[in-house]
Amino acid sequence: MKIVSAAEMREIDRATSERFGVPSLTLMENAGAAVARFALKLYPQAKSFGVICGKGNNGGDGFVAARKLHEAGKTVRVLVLAESSELRGDAAQMFQRLPVAASVTVATSTGDLENESALKCDVLIDAILGTGFKPPVQGIYAAAISAMNSSRVPVIAVDIPSGADADSVIPNASLVARAGAVVTFTAPRPAHVFGHFTDGPTVVAPIGSPEEAVVSRLQLQVITPRDFPSLLAPRLADSNKGNFGHVLVVGGSLGKAGAAAMAGMAALRAGAGLVTVATPKSVLPTVAGFHPEPMTEPLEETEAGTISLRALEYGRMDLLAKGKTVCAIGPGISRNDETAEFVRTAVKKYKTPTVLDADGLNAFEGRSGELDGTGRILVITPHPGEMARLAGISIADVQKDRLGVARRIAREHALIVVLKGHRTLVAKPDGEVWVNTTGNPGMATGGTGDILTGMTAGLMGQSTDDELTAVVAAVYLHGMAGDIARERLGEKCLVASDLLSGLPEAFRRATEASNDVAISF
């Protein structure tokens, strides 16, 4: 789903009306109706709704929502932060359509907000300012936002929490209305994805704009299950394991056997037909003991129990790489100097589609010029520390410009970058970036990255004609599996292997969500 700027959203609305014949009043009607439907679904027991409206189109959406809630039998109190004579256009028309029985009051000064009954309802709907607003907020609007923020009742934001800068990719420092949920329309703006407005859902509701009207130059997308339907579809009745790829995981070392084992099992859980884990020979029994399903192959090792350069001799790795659909290199492989040379040599030599992670990436610290995806499929999955080492900058520099750094590395090295963290990014060499909205802080624990590496390789093996689809699917499903694990265990107790048990439910939920009319994140 495309992310659009506030200016692009205005153009989308204009084009929808002028080119595609959908009246602007219809768009507003559909928007307000979507807010009311969501409010009734999220708070079915609420008896009263206070709708706080500005004088612009956001307020017009609020007037429609108020009318729909009244028609649903709810007590509705509308607070307008302007004289009715100040309303214009569609908003003025929707104000006139408010039912006579609805309670409507006007506030034009701070004093008017004292003991205002609309602010004391079971649920508040923030329809003061929309995505066209630029901070800071002042006057009666600021007073109303402060009053809502002081209230203890749930707040649903219409389009965006009032006071927010819709185009910002960093959280607002100025006054912004709190929100337990956000209902926006047609396409999200950058702040919906990066603004940290709410711990609840952000719903993107269609209101009548055709797909052809949704045009953006931001080169940003939100990952949704609609992006990978082929990987969610039922398998053919005559399928066999050869149809779903053979993944080779190269990793593990003394003390880090679990990383390679988890990556291998994650590839299988993601649907790979076959998985082989190649690991130092002294570590192999431990890797094989984790799960019976992955096959294992021993590799020559250093005195430290890491993969040796000798593993490349006599065509040993050549035989292992032959016939594999995807190779994942790095989980638990260690930072041993000889092992790092093995990694660099293997990545250069074998052109099998490759996922490179963890110490596989650290092998290129100070030698990033050797990391080249030209003419092949190469995916890297760094966390901010690994990205900092690869890019030769500080972690702070990575974090303050995650989009820019991911795009630059993807372009310079002709590969796909998965920059992990809150709002994991998937960047292509052409600058297009997909933003993930699943996942939670409980996943900040050792091993979750190894699970992602395995899942990415496993899904790539099933989508050999479209590696990007596989990567965005892996990132989304990985985060969703973490969210499911949190539901069962909480954030503090979550460990990486819990994601493996959450993955089947993640596939099920993604399959259901792929058919939803509205997108929620």
Short note summarizing the structure:
The chain is α/β, with parallel strands linked by helices and 521 residues long. Helices cover 37% and strands 15% of the residues. The longest helix is centred in the last third of the chain and has 23 residues.
Q: How would you characterize this protein structure?
A:
The chain has 17 helices and 18 strands. The protein has a ten-stranded mixed beta sheet, sandwiched between helices. It has an eight-stranded mixed beta sheet with strand order 3-2-1-4-5-6-7-18, with helices on both faces. About 55% of the residues are buried. The longest helix has 23 residues, at about 465-490. The chain is about 35% helix and about 15% strand. It has about 525 residues and is an alpha/beta fold. Helix 5 links the parallel strand 4 and strand 5.
